[in-house]
């Protein structure tokens, strides 16, 4: 077994980063509601949708959203 490194987070993190990159393209701040709508449209996993839904309402910069949701975009 050569692939013992945990990879469970990688696809999810990649999906989140791609979503945030897309949402924030040309936008400085985006609302929690908009992030959630876009995540649903992108058919992200339920765990990610739950994390996004749990964000307090308001506007976020890409680095704030990534930090709160466990992504690396920024």
Question: How is the secondary structure organized here?
Answer:
Elements: H1 10-23, E1 30-31, H2 32-41, H3 46-53, E2 59-60, H4 62-69
Antiparallel strand pairs: 1-2
Helix pairs in contact: 1-2, 1-4, 2-3
Structure characterization notes:
The longest helix is centred in the N-terminal third of the chain and has 14 residues, at 10-23. This protein has 74 residues and is mainly alpha-helical. 54% of the residues lie in helices and 5% in strands. The protein has helices spanning 10-23, 32-41, 46-53, 62-69; strands at 30-31, 59-60. Strands 1-2 form a two-stranded antiparallel ribbon. The chain has four helices and two strands. α1 crosses α2 (32-41) and α1 runs antiparallel to α4.
Order of helices and strands: HEHHEH
What strand order characterises the main sheet? 1-2
Major sheet details? 2 strands, antiparallel
Classify the helix fraction into a percent range: 40-55%
Unreliable spans are: 5-9
């Amino acid at each position: 077994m050569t692939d013992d490194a945990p990879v469970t987070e990688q696809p999810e993190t990649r999906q989140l980063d791609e979503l945030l990159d897309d949402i924030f393209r040309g936008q400085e701040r985006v609302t929690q509601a908009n992030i959630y709508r876009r995540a649903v449209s992108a058919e992200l996993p339920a765990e990610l949708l739950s994390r996004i839904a749990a964000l307090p309402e308001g506007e976020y910069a890409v680095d704030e959203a990534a930090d709160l949701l466990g992504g690396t975009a920024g």
